[in-house]
Amino acid sequence: MRKIELQSHNTLPVSVIVNVMPNRERFFYKYTLPSIIMNNPFEILINDSLESAPKKWNELKNSCSQDYIYLLSDDFIIPYGHIKSFYELLITTDDSIAYCYPESYYCFPFMPEYHNVGRNFKYISKEFDEQALKENNYIDGSCLFKKCFWVDFDENLKRLYDWDMVLNHLINNKRKGVMVKGSEFLTFCLDEGISAKKNNIEDAIFELKKKWNL
After folding, report:
1. On the CB side of 52, how many CA atoms lie within 13 Å of its CA?
2. What is the third-level CATH fold of 2-211?
3. What pTM was estimated for this model as a whole?
4. What distance in Å separates the CA atoms of residue 186 and residue 197, rounded to the nearest whole number?
5. Between the CA of residue 17 and those of 57, 65, 128, 167, 183, what are the distances in Å?
6. Using CA atoms, how far apart are residues 141 and 44, in angstroms rounded to an integer?
7. pLDDT single digits (tens) 63-109
């Protein structure tokens, strides 16, 4: 694991954690990391091990020193001020809110034949809706969390662990998320993904809804 601390008087009290896959390292260090640095978080933690994604996320969280944790994928590029807009919204919320999430993103699949959409597209989320979240996951995993309300990823899941995490917040802890209006970023699906290659999405949805009795 690697930690980068930014030496600035006006850094945000945010730990950015990134699960980096070995085959995406060049893209991450050339494009994703600079976009994080210009957002001025207190620290950036990078896990490039070969362990499962849920395990890597949990290990990253345990190494965070700040009260807010921002999750980011290794093939995302975020604009200047992105994390600040999340932070400024989240600090105004009460204890019923555990995290905030983006409104939209532009996706560019490098291997469209393996992507469920198969072309460039813009994804638009929605305002938080409990029933809708139990039916489908409309919340992207690049959220800013209050560390005090963090719940660990389920390391037994091969897919949909980000959906499982927000369901855990909702069902077990009675906490919600809030959408950051106007927020957007770029995501580049550089490959078909390790979990996508090995695990059927329909089976994953069935198992997750069975777990939560949905």
Report:
1. 15
2. Spore Coat Polysaccharide Biosynthesis Protein SpsA; Chain A (3.90.550)
3. 0.93
4. 23
5. 7, 11, 24, 21, 19
6. 17
7. 999 999 999 999 999 999 999 999 999 999 999 999 999 999 999 98
